[in-house]
Design a protein that fits this description.
62% helix, mainly alpha, single chain, 391 residues, two-stranded parallel sheet
């Protein structure tokens, strides 16, 4: 039986498989995702052509199709037009049929026209990578067979399943279904785990939806994005140039809000909402106990958690009805709810000029600090000190 040019022990084939699939993951996250879809970094032509060729061999994915489908996901997230939302389609369908869902959307001419602009359109893209996308996959199988014999075909099969399962299934499915949320964007995105290694950093999916144009997906000091590590190494070697990363916040104590405060709050609005929810968590728990002791109204802790982390209009009709009953019975909950709505309105008022928005933010802070709710006062005083770190 033909064993190929390299005869390895069993663990050698395992390492080869993991190495090859990891290169593919790196190509997807660095080239397709961060570079092509979001333009968060520029790549040297040598790096760009390597990634395109590797993806042609290992996935058959076309840059324009992948970028267009992903951009549409961000633009239409968690709606009926989202190409792969588990909120709409169900977690099972996205997990196990994610690759098929992607293929269907990739044939949508309207999606490619609207969201596929700015992707490679050179001779290689038109005449090789796009025109013969399946040929690369077949060539990869032949190369594996030549190198490793019949076990190489098994390695090839794992390579072919790796991206459909981890990218189309895990990231698009689990990444909008299970995990923790550091930010509160208007979608269901979650960080699966804080260490982005197996899927190249894409595990930090909530971070990405909060700052989609950032080349770095880690935001907290305890998070690790291996894709960002590769990008920094490539930057040192002159193979990449980072254009944007999520801006950092610095705290500068102030007596009142100014333009710097406004810019920082708007830029980090999803983090502001997450901190608002965490800051009021204990206050809400104490108010629930007070209402129960007074036999005023029955409060569901899970309802309060959903309400603190979502816009009211995104709650179900039943949840909104229950919430209205709670608000009528509690000044504390009514204040927390109205102040959250007014805070989100600061960055939602597109007709107001900057000076008006600064005054509105200052007025919000003043009312929060005189609300009689200690946690709201403390949150407001911290919010006043927000400003963006120098670039």
């Amino acid at each position: 039986m033909y064993s190929g040019l390299f005869d390895l022990p069993w663990w050698g084939y395992v390492l080869v498989t993991l190495g090859l699939t990891h290169i593919t993951i790196a190509a997807v996250t660095i080239y397709l995702h961060r570079h092509a879809a979001h333009r968060a970094l520029d790549l040297h032509p040598l790096a760009s052509h390597f990634f395109r060729c590797w993806l042609w061999l290992t996935t058959g994915m076309v840059t324009k199709e992948w970028a267009a489908v992903h951009r549409k996901h961000h633009a239409r997230c968690e709606t009926a037009e989202d190409p792969h939302s588990p909120v709409v389609l169900g977690i099972a369908k996205v997990m196990w049929q994610g690759a098929d869902i992607y293929k269907i959307e990739a044939t949508n001419a309207e999606t490619l026209e609207i969201f596929g602009q700015g992707t490679p359109d050179d001779w290689m893209e038109r005449n090789v990578y796009t025109a013969h996308s399946v040929s690369g996959i077949v060539l990869m199988m032949l190369i594996n067979f030549a190198l490793f014999g019949f076990i190489g075909v098994t390695i090839w099969a794992v390579q072919m399943m790796w991206i459909p399962f981890f990218a189309a299934g895990i990231i698009n499915g689990v990444g909008h279904y299970w995990g923790y949320r550091s930010f509160q964007p208007d979608d269901a995105s979650r960080n699966i785990v804080p260490w982005g290694i197996i899927i190249g950093g894409e595990e930090l999916h909530n971070n990405h939806h909060a700052y989609p144009s950032s080349a770095r997906l880690s935001n907290k000091w305890w998070e690790f994005d291996i894709g960002w590590m590769y990008i920094r190494i490539m930057e040192i070697l002159g193979l990449a140039y980072v254009k944007r990363v999520a801006p950092a916040i610095v705290l500068a104590p102030k007596s009142q809000c100014d333009l710097d405060t406004l810019h920082a709050v708007i830029t980090h609005r999803y983090e502001v909402l997450a901190k608002y929810a965490r800051s009021l968590k204990r206050t809400c728990a104490e108010e629930i106990e007070r209402l129960r002791a007074a036999h005023a109204v029955r409060v569901d802790r899970r309802l309060v958690k959903r309400w603190l982390h979502r816009e009211e209009q995104k709650l179900s009709a039943l949840d909104r009805e229950r919430l209205l009953e709670v608000l009528k019975s509690s000044r504390v909950f009514d204040t927390i709810n109205s102040m959250r709505q007014e805070l989100t309105a600061v960055w939602g008022r597109s007709s107001a000029n900057k000076e008006q928005l600064v005054r509105q933010l200052e007025d919000w802070c003043r009312r929060a600090e005189t609300s009689g709710i200690d946690a709201l006062r403390d949150f407001s005083m911290r919010l006043r000190s927000y400003q963006l770190a120098p670039a």
